[in-house]
């Protein structure tokens, strides 16, 4: 099994999984909140139509976790919005 780094911690994933699939497989169903109301968000549509699963990958923000294949050594940071 391979590992990526999520919020500074290793996360194992199976080859062929997206970042979102790896997070959900590890039991993490939300990884950001909405600007208004701070409601939890994670993978919703799973096909890249919505923007609920946004993360920062290797320093590039606004990446849809459901579209990006997980790869060894990838660094993922979740996005917790603090804007009102």
Automatic annotation (TrEMBL):
Entry keywords, A to Z: Oxidoreductase
Database matches in InterPro entries: 2Fe-2S-bd_N (IPR042204), 2Fe-2S_ferredoxin-like_sf (IPR036010)
Top-level taxonomic group: Bacteria
Record bears the keyword Oxidoreductase: yes
Name of the protein this chain belongs to: (2Fe-2S)-binding protein
Native source organism of the sequence: Streptomyces prasinosporus
Classification of source organism: Bacteria, Bacillati, Actinomycetota, Actinomycetes, Kitasatosporales
């Amino acid at each position: 099994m391979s590992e990526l780094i999520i919020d500074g911690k290793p996360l194992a994933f199976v080859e062929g999984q997206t970042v979102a699939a790896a997070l959900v497989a590890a039991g993490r169903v939300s990884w950001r909140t909405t600007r208004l109301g701070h409601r939890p968000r994670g993978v919703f549509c799973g096909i890249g139509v919505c923007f609920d699963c946004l993360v920062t990958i290797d320093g590039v923000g606004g990446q849809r976790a459901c579209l990006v294949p997980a790869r060894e050594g990838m660094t993922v940071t979740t996005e917790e919005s603090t804007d009102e």
